[in-house]
Structures are given as structure tokens and as C-alpha cells.
Write the C-alpha cells for this entry.
Amino acid sequence: MSASATDDGLVSLAAREARGGRLSMAGLLIGPATIFVTIGLLLPILILFRYSLNDFKPGLLMVDTLTINQYVLFFTDPYYLAAFWRTLRVAVAVTVICVILSFPLAYKLARTQSRYKNLLIMLVVLPLFVGNAVRAAGWITAFGNKGFVNVTLQWLGLIDEPIRIMYTEFAVIVGIVAVNLPYVVLTLQSIIEGIDRSVEEAAYSLGADPLTMARRVLWPLALPGFAAGAIFCFILAMNAYATPVLLGGPQFVMMGPLVYVQFAVKSNWPFGASVSFVLMTATLLLTAAANLMVLRRYRN
Amino acid sequence: MAGLHLEHLSKHFGATVAVRDVTLRVGEGEFLVLLGPSGCGKTTTLRMIAGFIAPTTGRVHLGGREITALPPWRRNAGIVFQSYALFPHLTVAENVAFGLEMRKLAKDEIASRVSEALRLVRLGSLGERLPRQLSGGQQQRVALARALAIRPDVLLLDEPLSNLDAKLRETVRIEIRELQRQLGITTVMVTHDQEEALIMADRLVVMSDGEVKQVGTQRELYEHPADRFVAGFVGRSSFLPGTITGPGRFETKGGLAIACASGLTGPAVIALRPERLALGPSASGLDNHLQGTVELVSYLGASVDVHVRVSPADRIVVTQPNRIDSRTPEEGEKIAVGWPAGAAVVFPDDGSTARL
């Protein structure tokens, strides 16, 4: 008994040594990323949070203290609250539109037997090669009063006067959808590719028409991937900056640009910090809630 | 239950012809096996019966009704896929119930048919498990139960045993065969495994290059192969290429004179079944009697394969039953090989010789 215990001890020691070696190697590899995240992300966030509890006095700028004044200001001022709801509304709309538009494309991409598949995927990714600001500038030329859309509609005789598209919520939503679509398509495509095609055929052979098949088989199997794609899209939309500034104009205030204005234009660091925290917290809470909902659906 | 009739079925993919003019009748309750090497068109044929592929030309009739234009969900064909294709998010019972729900049956009717189907495949107690919690063999049986539960007009099996290990495959193929016979269900199976095909089929269809080479029972295919491909694919044969030099006279490329029973003329190939040949003393007095050298001996347990070189260009494989009193020849030994003229099958040499 004792002999075997010693043997076990030796074996586990050797195993631990081997594992230890592997662990230290792994530590070496993930070290830089960990240090970077700690110093470059967590620390500034902590400092930012501390700033958000300071006060702001015109002339003195940031005053060291411990108060929730900045948060109270945000949640009591209709202007800022409107910016918050507007951001949420745009992000939700963008996410819904992206998921609906992405699905057929992602499905086609995942299931195509074409030898040009890689080329098709490149075409989806291609828009990402153009920066957000440049792309928004492109939309400006399309959406202006003398832009492509208005000129075409007038030429077709559908409208007499140019309609206002620039500086509307519609323009901003279209702009962000265009930015986010490739991400969602690629996420969904990889998920659908992981679903065995013969599972769909099995459903057909058992009497399910394509809609029923999609609802009873494809959708439940793709749901986790859908959630990942949607959450990714939502986070990007909540934090959009260039698109709302360029296509929404000065009146259309969203949270991302608001943070920038408080820090860089008004030098109001405490308020900028608290706006950042409201944005971050709302994004995290909604993401977590969506995740929970999906998990519960998936278990049942 | 219903018979299946394929009428001049063809499928072209661009310039390639996957299936060429296949006409088959599967009787009610018959077990038909499509046998052939990969790429021979057997799976494409099965998928046209299932409705996953539209034929370029030709028609499919099931139970006297033409179904060529019907989508798969309106055909009432039960399919067992090579990968089983179970719904991973549904339990075993839910998998089996899926097709019944599609048919909008009453709840208690579904419940009783699910448990009946699971009992048929001896999985009665596993209804609440998820597919990933089952072994490969159990998953295969769920797939079978799911296909049978809808009481299909035809059961289609796409290489259903290829993902099982060899030992399990032996028992499962007997089980499927017995179940099929007990239910009397018209069945078409696709396989590249000739042993599996021989064990399970009522009739076999040998396919190659998108065409049906021969249709027949095991005995018909083995005793009277239609061409050299079938002779090589169903069972084993040693092939001796050469020329028919006169009535009943054949000369191999290696220069051996052989007596055969054939009315052919010109270039031809002789096919010899290894177990129809006599070795050593028992070869004497037969129509053909060749001297050769043993080049290779394979000990297979129940039998021994002896490869005998009879001329620089010709080698013959002889299978000897491994009896208690039989002597196994040694490599390098001089030995006689013999057979009666009627034991060999002769095919015209159409140039396909080079392929095998």
C-alpha cells in the first residue's frame, strides 16, 4: 500500500514537473498580453472611474473630491438622457438589421460549393480595408441634397424636392450597418459552416419544408453564434464615433462623440469620465442580459 | 409499402456525367444494394431518389406515383445518413418524434410510435439522452429508428455502417437486414463494401463510371459477371490477358496455351476465381494444368492465399481452405495449378484491362 503510494507520488511529481514546465512556457507566451491589458486597459479604467467621482469647477477644471454629482447631472439632464436613449435605439436597430441582412448571405457563403468561395469571403471583408471616416465621407456624397440618392429619386420622378437624408437617424443607422455588416456575416458564416449539412437534409427527408427546417433545426443550432455576432455588432454600434459625427451632424449626439467633446473640447474630465462609465456599464449589462437569455433558450 | 422505379435517370454536373441512363425496378419489400467504387454515381442516384438532387433527365416513381418533381419533404422516404445526421440539440426521443410532428400526428400517437421505433432498435431506455451522450453504434440505431418511425415508402441507407468499427459492423448489418425483412420495407442501400453488399442484399446493382454494369443476385454476379469490372469488383479474380486463337483455345500474353469454354474471338481476358483452382497433386488430370513457382503465401486463418507465377507475365492467386490435413506450400516451391475449362470466365478485351 505504502509502496504504491510512493509510486503514485513519484508519478504525480513527474507529471507536475512536466505540467509545470508547460505552465511556465504558457505564462511566458500570455505574459505580454496580460501586462498590456493590465497597464493599458484596466489601470486607465480604474483611474477614469476615480475621475468620474471628482467634481468640475469652471476655471479650476477637475477638483479632487468624492461625489456622484456627475452621474446625477447626466441622469437628470434631458439633453444627455436623450443622447443615451438615442445611442441605445440606434445600436439596437443596427444590430437587428445587421443580423437579418447577414443571415442569407452568411448561409450562402457557408454552403457554397463554388471554388470562388475564398474570393467571395474576401469581397465581404473588403469594405473593412476602408476606414470608417473615409466610408462616412462616401455616404455624404450619396446622401446630400445633390447626392446620388436624391438625384436618382428625382430623375425617376419619385420626388420633386430633395429629401433630407444627411444628419438624420436613418443616415447614421445606414452608415453603422455598413461598417458592422462584414463582422456579423463572417461570424454567422463560420457558425453555419460548423453545422453538418446532412442535418438539414435529414430534416427535409422527415417532412420539414425549408422554413420549418430553419426554425426547428438551423436556428437553434446557430443561436449561440447568432448571439455572438449580435453582441459584437451591438458593442460596436454603441461605441460608434466617426459615423454619427459625420452623418449625424452636430445636433445628433450619441454617447461616443459626447465623451470626446467633454474631454477634448470642454476639458470636463469628471463628466467625460462619468459618461464613459454610463456607456460602458450599459453596454456590459445589455450584453450580459442577452447572453443569459440565449443560454436559457438554449438549455430548454 | 411501395415499389420504386427509376426510369432512364441521368445527372450531369456541367460537362461531367455523374449518372448515365439508370433504369431500375425495386420490388415491394426488396433490399437492393447499389455497389461500386467511390465516384461511380451510386450516391448521386440515391440522392435523386431522396430528392436532394434533381435528375437532368429521367423519372422516379414511388408506389406507382411519379415523384420526380416533388421536394424531399413530400416524398416520404426515410434516410439513414453516413454521418447519422442526428439533431444534436434534441433528445433521442425528440429526434425520432421529429418526422411524426411534421406529419401533425396527435401527441399520444407520436409517443407510442416513438417508443415502438426505439424498441425496434433496442434503445427503449435511452429516449431522454442527447445524441452526443451515445456511442457510435447507438447513434446509428437512433438514425434508423428516426427513419423508420415515419413509416416511409422507401428506406434509403447511405453507407450506414462505414463509421462503425469492424466488429460492430458485422452484427449491425445482420440486425438491419432482419429488421428490414421483418418490416417488409422497400430498401435501397449504397455501399462500396462488397462483403456488406453480399450479406445484406436481395439483389445488387454494380455501378461504375455513372453506369449500371450489372443487376442480379449474389450468385448471378459471382458466377456470371457481365464484364471484367464486375468480375474484379464482386469477389476476387486473377486476370490473364491474351487472345482467343481458335475454338476453345486461348493464348495468354505470357505465351501460355489455355483451354476455355467461350465462343469469342480476338483479344480477350480470362478471369479465374481463386477458390475454383486446384493446387499440387489435385491439379493433375484437369483441362488446364500449368507449372509455376510460389511467389507469396498469405495465411488468412480460415484459408491460405497462394500466389503462383505461371509465366513471366502471368500470376494466379489460389485460395486453399485451411484444413487440418492440408499442407501449405512454401514460397519458392515449384507447384502445379489446374482447373477445368468451364471454371474460367472469358471477356472480350475492350481495352479496360489497363485500368485494373
